[in-house]
């Protein structure tokens, strides 16, 4: 996705949200009967809303690991996500998004996964993912404390959207919501606990398929393979660490401890 | 443009209808109207702001530790303190007014610099605690020394800044290098005398108030009793006594039993300037709660709730975010309070809860850019605001190193820029204008060319004079009004 396209997307988003009026069918009958037609008529609104949702989720997940995340910002983003979710549920478009696939190559998917699952240290180093345009180049060099900003712009709007649509290629909207709600809950649990373990949980349990890819990428062998289904099964109640997460998080913890010892 | 001619016609018509010579009042009126017409929109009583000084590095490459994070004048205005991201506090002192130079007030020069907070590591949570100074608040002066409170995310410190300009000399009990002399060699009794020395300003931490906040401290406010103060983090507010460091009282707690239900946080808090039992705190949902500490020990139930109903025509996904209040400040009189949200400044009368009495748009042209600002996180910028000494003008910052002033009486506003281009002292600042859409006039700046990296979050107004301190990312600008 070129820089210009990325910029265009945000500009579209801006114009979309400028009036702030929800562009949904007022007439209920029309809504039920011609949902598909309705979607076709205003495809951009849903796409943009989806983009906003993805952007928000990325922002929430990519919390700066070394310093405590800004709670106010997290709460505001989470509220925005809830708001979008509610509207999408009302619109009945929750299921619709699953049918949209934009045919991203598997390589892109791998790369975008990499961003999410990379350890905090690597994120802090601000590795730019090749092939993803940074349409806010001004902010690339912004050296505020939040390194997640680098990541937010690196993983441009395109990647997260595909990420999430692929994640939610599930039949059941209910499960989507459950999983989704779970990730929101987990985010707050994480913020509450603020331990490396639960942060790793956040990454691993939002979408386990990513986790698998990540282990492949980093060349680590995991003991048990956490399938797609496991994530769904556990959605109803927040779970504690799995053996997989233990493995990875232990290693990260070890790295971290060594780092502290070396530095002090 | 039309206003000018209307005034002219009115004045000359009035003059024409009276054949007598213009009265003193007429002349005054003419002068005033001409002046206000020709000087255009001015911030209050035709104040003309001039560049005075700029502090900080000239480099465009900003060292992160040098980013200014708070600015505060003391109660007399003689001292100006800044805190930065590196945990340092720099205090500037105003020179005594030079009788020969009646054109300008004294300059501010560095008085003291010290490291207030150091970075820490919370081993339990494996997280760093930033040393960035979030707020500085001065105590009123009670003796020769000055006291201020400075805070980072977790710890508040009381600093004493004292001067030393004399030292005792003439001891004969020690050698030059400090070793004690053999007592048998001491044959005379010599009383040391104080001799003048170069002025030395020392800062020493007198109290450290730690371990009382789980979340990040965003505000501190000294009570009008000058004995207690409050500190507020995202979910709790604590009341301290300045002398007691091992205990504090929790007076507000909005943490839900289940953190998953968290939807609102505290964003700012302040004590009332006159009533020592009253304080307010603002939230991320755009509400302000006024609490009375006499009502109960835990002030979870507000005495007053200030909230403006949402404008349905402006509703969007970002409505809540932009309604989040980033700063709340009482007027000096205590009758009003001002709140800053992302796009506006609102003045509230403490007697009226359902809506503000005045609303000023800071940069309404950003409303159509909210999505981009959300993407680059600018929408979460926390702008501060301040009153002038007489509560007639309010000031706040914006992007592109612009800052805005609103005159509450004349209803006029002005946009000025803090930049090194207007470097000469007593250069009057030129008002700036942002072109929202359509054809851009000469000297106007279009919204798309605004630099969102250059933001003015912290501003301060001298308590008595028309002197303002405006902080850009790493520079501190001081502006004064033009004295005739």
Automatic annotation (TrEMBL), chain A:
Source organism of the structure: Dromaius novaehollandiae
Per the database record, which ranges form the SERTA domain?
45-92
Pfam families per record? SERTA
Stretch list, region Disordered: 127-163
Question: PANTHER family per the record?
Answer: CELL DIVISION CYCLE ASSOCIATED PROTEIN 4/SERTA DOMAIN-CONTAINING PROTEIN 2 (PTHR16277), CELL DIVISION CYCLE-ASSOCIATED PROTEIN 4 (PTHR16277:SF6)
Compositionally biased tracts (Polar residues): 145-163
The cross-references to InterPro entries, in alphabetical order and at most eight, read: E2F-SERTA_domain_protein (IPR052262), SERTA_dom (IPR009263)
The lineage's top-level taxon is Eukaryota
Q: What is this protein called?
A: Cell division cycle associated 4
Q: Which GO terms describe its cellular component?
A: nucleus
TrEMBL record, chain B:
Q: Mind telling me which PANTHER family this protein's record contains? A: PROTEIN PHOSPHATASE PP2A REGULATORY SUBUNIT B
- The stretch of residues making up the signal peptide is 1-20
User: Does the record's keyword annotation contain Signal?
Assistant: yes
The protein's UniProt keywords, in alphabetical order, are: Repeat, Signal, WD repeat
Q: Which SMART domains match?
A: WD40
What name does UniProt use for this protein? Serine/threonine-protein phosphatase 2A 55 kDa regulatory subunit B
Q: Which family does it belong to?
A: Belongs to the phosphatase 2A regulatory subunit B family.
Among the GO molecular function terms of this UniProt record, one is: protein phosphatase regulator activity
- InterPro entries noted in UniProt: PP2A_PR55, PP2A_PR55_CS, WD40/YVTN_repeat-like_dom_sf, WD40_repeat_dom_sf, WD40_rpt
Domain of life according to the entry: Eukaryota
Q: Which gene encodes it?
A: PPP2R2A
């Amino acid at each position: 996705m070129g820089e210009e396209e990325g910029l265009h997307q945000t500009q579209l988003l801006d114009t979309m949200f400028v009036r702030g009026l929800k562009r949904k069918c007022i007439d209920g009958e029309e809504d039920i009967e011609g949902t598909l037609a309705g979607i076709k008529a205003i495809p951009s609104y849903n796409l943009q809303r989806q983009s906003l949702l993805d952007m928000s989720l990325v922002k929430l997940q990519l919390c700066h690991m070394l310093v405590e995340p800004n709670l106010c910002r997290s709460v505001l983003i989470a509220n925005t996500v809830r708001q979008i979710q509610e509207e999408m549920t009302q619109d009945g478009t929750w299921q619709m998004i699953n049918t949209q696939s934009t045919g991203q190559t598997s390589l892109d998917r791998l790369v975008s996964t990499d961003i999410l699952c990379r350890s905090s240290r690597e994120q802090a180093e601000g590795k730019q993912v090749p092939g993803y345009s940074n349409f806010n180049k001004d902010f690339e060099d912004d050296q505020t404390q939040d390194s997640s900003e680098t990541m937010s712009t690196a993983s441009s709007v395109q990647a997260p959207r595909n990420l999430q649509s692929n994640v939610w290629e599930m039949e059941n909207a209910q499960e989507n919501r459950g999983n989704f709600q779970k990730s929101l809950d987990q985010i707050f649990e994480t913020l509450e606990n603020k331990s490396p373990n639960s942060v790793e949980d956040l990454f691993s349990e939002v979408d386990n398929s990513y986790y698998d890819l990540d282990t492949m990428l980093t060349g680590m062998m995991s003991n048990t393979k956490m399938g797609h289904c496991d994530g769904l099964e556990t959605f109803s109640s927040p779970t504690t660490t799995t053996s997989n997460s233990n493995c990875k998080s232990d290693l990260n913890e070890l790295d971290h401890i060594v780092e502290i010892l070396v530095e002090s | 443009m039309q206003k000018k001619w209307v005034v002219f016609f009115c004045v000359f018509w009035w003059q024409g209808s009276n054949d007598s010579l213009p009265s003193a009042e007429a002349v005054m009126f003419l002068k005033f109207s001409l002046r206000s017409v020709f000087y255009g929109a001015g911030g209050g009583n035709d104040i003309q702001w001039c560049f005075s000084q700029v502090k900080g590095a000239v480099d465009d490459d900003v060292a992160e530790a040098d980013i200014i994070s708070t600015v505060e004048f003391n109660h007399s205005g003689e001292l100006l303190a800044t805190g930065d991201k590196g945990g340092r506090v720099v205090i500037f002192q105003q020179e005594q007014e030079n009788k020969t130079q009646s054109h300008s007030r004294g300059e501010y020069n560095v008085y003291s610099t010290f490291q207030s907070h150091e970075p820490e590591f919370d081993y339990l949570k494996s997280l760093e605690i930033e040393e960035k100074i979030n707020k500085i608040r001065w105590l009123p002066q009670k003796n020769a020394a000055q006291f201020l409170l400075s805070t980072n995310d977790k710890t508040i410190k009381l600093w004493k800044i004292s001067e030393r300009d004399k030292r005792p000399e003439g001891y004969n009990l020690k050698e030059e290098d400090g070793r004690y002399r053999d007592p048998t060699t001491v044959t005379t009794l010599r009383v040391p005398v104080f001799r003048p020395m170069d002025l030395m300003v020392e800062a020493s931490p007198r109290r450290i108030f730690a371990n009382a906040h789980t979340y990040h401290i965003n505000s501190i406010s000294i009570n009008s009793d000058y004995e207690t103060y409050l500190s507020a983090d995202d979910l709790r507010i604590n009341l301290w006594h300045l002398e007691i460091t091992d205990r504090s009282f929790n007076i507000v707690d909005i943490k839900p039993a289940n953190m998953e239900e968290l939807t609102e946080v505290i964003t700012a808090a302040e004590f009332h300037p006159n009533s020592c039992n009253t304080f307010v705190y603002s939230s991320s949902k755009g509400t302000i709660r006024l609490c009375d500490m006499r009502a109960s020990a835990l002030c979870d139930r507000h005495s007053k709730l200030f909230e403006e109903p949402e404008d349905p025509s402006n509703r969007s996904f970002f409505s809540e975010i932009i309604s989040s209040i980033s700063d709340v400040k009482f007027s000096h009189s205590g009758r009003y309070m001002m709140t800053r949200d992302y796009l506006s400044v609102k003045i509230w009368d403490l007697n009226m809860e359902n809506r503000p009495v005045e609303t000023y748009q800071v940069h309404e042209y950003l409303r159509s850019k909210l999505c981009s600002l959300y993407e680059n996180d600018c929408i979460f910028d926390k702008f501060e605001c301040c009153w002038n000494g007489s509560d007639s003008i309010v000031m706040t910052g914006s992007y592109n190193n612009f800052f805005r002033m609103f005159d509450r009486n004349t209803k006029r506003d002005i946009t000025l820029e803090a930049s090194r281009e207007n470097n000469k002292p007593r250069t009057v600042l030129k008002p700036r204008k942002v072109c929202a859409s359509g054809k851009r006039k000469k000297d106007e700046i279009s919204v798309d060319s605004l630099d969102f990296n250059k933001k003015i979050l912290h501003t301060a107004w001298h308590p008595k004079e028309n002197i303002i301190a405006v902080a850009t990312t790493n520079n501190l600008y001081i502006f004064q009004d033009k004295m005739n």
